[in-house]
Specification:
Layout: H1 2-10, H2 13-60, H3 63-71, H4 78-89, E1 95-100, E2 130-136, E3 139-149, E4 155-164, H5 165-204, H6 210-226, E5 230-234, E6 240-243, H7 245-251, H8 262-265, H9 270-276, E7 284-287, E8 292-302, E9 305-315, H10 317-355, H11 359-383, H12 387-402, E10 405-410, H13 422-441, E11 447-456, E12 459-466, H14 498-508, E13 512-517, E14 521-528, H15 542-555, E15 572-575
Parallel strand pairs: 10-11, 10-15
Antiparallel strand pairs: 1-4, 2-3, 3-4, 5-6, 5-9, 7-8, 8-9, 11-12, 12-14, 13-14
Organism: Solihabitans fulvus
GO molecular function: ATP binding; phosphorelay sensor kinase activity
EC number: 2.7.13.3
């Protein structure tokens, strides 16, 4: 364990990068220096070969040389004297050798070699000049050979001039040190830059090593795709920089969402406002066409610098369904409590009449109250053929009666048979009635809520009005936004979702909801209705009758005794 920790400390990311950069830099510099040295040597060889050739051409053009070569002998030593003079006068020339057509030397730096034949052929007899590095008797040299032409223009010999390689090498070594110095300076500069880059990289990666970065990446991917919440991150310009699979599902975003702005991905609305930060707050509830989302958005800052924001999304669709079931259960509980209260009052009245010995009056009272309750339930069942909707209206009447609010069903209300989207209709109607009861209970007396339900030509019309204070000025559209409410918010109870849910369901069913004043608020919902059962009517279906009667029997007992006018329809009934 100690050895492993020691190795990790000795091979930090910044150190490894610095060493790698320096190694690459040194190798590059060495290769460059070697290539430059080779190129310089080749250039010097060419320059000295051309210099030797120029000397050879000059000597070959001298009349004395041409005459001696033509004669094939130089008894006077004129050619040797000229060659030696040129060798001493011209810097770096090591030898000048004049050769006739037979390969006999007429001049040479070593006098003993004069009048001796060379070992190789006379190459300049082809009439062309030649340059090469010559391994001659005096050592390797940069050699230039020029033909000597006779009076008839034909080559009759050659002049060979050479500059020893020692001179070339000496010149080469004179040119290398400055280049080596520049290379060393460049290497030092590159090392300094590499060190700065390594420190910059260390600062950028917050001192993390490679294995730590890889581990963080793996943990991030596992966290993003392993949680049930949706996670989306944005940069300062509102572009999506990171998104997990759950967020794609909840928002319905394509796979190419990375790098795009929110306004290009989401339509204008509450969801985009919350994600962009236009609407601030925690646990914002947003309704989409498919989901009920709880959205939180938090700005991200690092060392005082704003980096963007991260948003989390929780799917509360199932939870909302459970809450609606709980609300329905609570409504049933309220209805039962109201029934218990009303039955208790009636039993006390009957008991008092019996104690007074007025049995006939007690029997009449019992008959009258039972007849009124049964009459309202039968009236609702006759007008609303769907037992679920009929039961909802009858149950809500009990709740309304307990709050001194009359629940009225218009005379022209009529729903023929089972509804195609009965569960959605129950949710829509229940929310509208609850809101209307709350509004009417806080308004002037007498308070009442009027319901109109009618199915016509494959359409269902729902209208709910109340005698409440009405809609705040300028809030005709905002009342349908999630979170909007005119009621006080109780602890641990979300408000402002009812109308938002109603509009979402209406739109999902290709319907619409409108609001008007008349004089209280009037909500009208129009829905397409392609029911599976038409023409039989609610009363002709035994199962529907049984369900409606059961709902009526379970809920109307408390509807008639909420106030002294209950028996006459003050709290519930049918209106024209």
């Amino acid at each position: 364990m100690v050895t492993e920790c020691h190795v990790r400390r000795s091979t930090k990311l910044s150190t490894r990068i610095l060493v790698s950069q320096l190694t690459i830099l040194i190798i590059t510099m060495v290769i460059g220096f070697v290539l430059y040295a080779q190129q310089t040597r080749a250039t010097l060889d060419t320059q000295y070969e051309q210099r030797a050739l120029a000397i050879a051409e000059t000597v070959a053009a001298l009349p004395q040389v041409r005459a001696a070569v033509a004669a094939g002998a130089d008894p006077s030593g004129t050619v040797q004297a000229l060659a030696e003079q040129i060798r001493h006068d011209v810097d770096a020339v090591r030898y000048v050798v004049v050769i006739d057509r037979d390969g006999i030397r007429l001049s040479h730096p070593t006098p003993a070699q004069i009048d001796k034949k060379i070992e190789e052929p006379v190459v300049a007899l082809d009439g062309h000049t030649h340059v090469r590095t010559d391994p001659g008797s005096l050592g390797d040299s940069a050699n230039g050979r020029a033909p000597v032409f006779g009076s008839d223009g034909r080559p009759i010999g050659e002049v060979s001039a050479g500059i020893l390689e020692d001179r070339v090498v000496g010149q080469w070594w004179l040119e290398l040190p400055p280049v080596a110095l520049y290379t060393a300076l460049a290497l030092c500069f590159g090392a300094a830059v590499s060190l700065l880059l390594a420190r910059r990289l260390k600062k950028t990666t917050f001192g993390l090593e490679l294995h730590e970065i890889a581990s963080l990446l793996q943990e991030r991917e596992a966290m993003l795709h392993g949680v049930r919440e949706g996670v989306v991150t944005f940069d300062q310009d509102g572009r999506v920089t990171l998104i997990n699979d759950e967020a794609r599902r909840l928002l319905g975003l394509p796979g190419s969402a990375i790098g795009q702005r929110l306004d290009a991905l989401l339509p204008d609305g509450c969801l985009r406002d919350v994600l962009s930060g236009s609407v601030e707050g925690t646990d914002q509830i947003v309704l989409t066409d498919e989901h009920c989302l709880v959205v939180n958005r938090m700005a991200v800052n690092l060392r005082g610098q704003a980096l963007g924001a991260v948003a989390t999304l929780r799917d509360r669709t199932e939870t909302e369904g459970l809450l609606r079931e709980l609300t329905s259960t609570r409504g049933l509980t309220d209805a039962l409590r109201a029934q218990q209260h009303e039955f208790a009052n009636r039993l006390h009245t009957i008991a008092g009449l019996l104690e007074l010995g007025r049995t006939d009056e007690a029997l009449d009272y019992l008959t009258d109250t039972s007849g009124i309750a049964e009459g309202f339930a039968e009236s609702v069942s006759d007008k609303i053929g769907d037992p679920m909707v009929a039961a909802l209206v009858v149950a809500k009447a009990s709740v309304a009666a307990e709050r001194d609010v009359a629940l009225l069903l218009t005379e022209d209300s009529f729903v023929d048979g089972l509804l195609a989207e009965r569960h959605a209709v129950v949710t829509i109607l229940g929310n509208l009635i609850d809101n209307a009861i709350d509004a009417a209970a806080g308004g002037p007396s007498p308070a009442h809520v009027t319901i109109r339900l009618r199915s016509e030509a494959d359409q269902l019309f729902i209208r709910v009005s109340d005698t409440g204070p009405g809609i705040p000025v300028g809030a005709d559209d905002s009342i349908f936004q999630s979170g909007f409410t005119t009621k006080p918010t109780r602890a641990n109870l979300d408000r402002g979702l009812g109308l938002a849910i109603v509009r979402r369901l209406a739109r999902r069913l290709d319907g619409q909801i409108t609001v008007s004043e008349g004089p209280g608020p009037v909500f009208t919902v129009t829905l397409p209705d392609h029911a599976s059962d038409r023409g039989s009517g609610g009363a002709s279906d035994d199962a529907a009758d049984h369900a409606a009667d059961h709902a009526a029997d379970a809920s109307t007992g408390a509807e008639l005794g909420a106030s002294p006018g209950a028996a006459s329809g003050a709290n519930l009934g049918v209106t024209r």
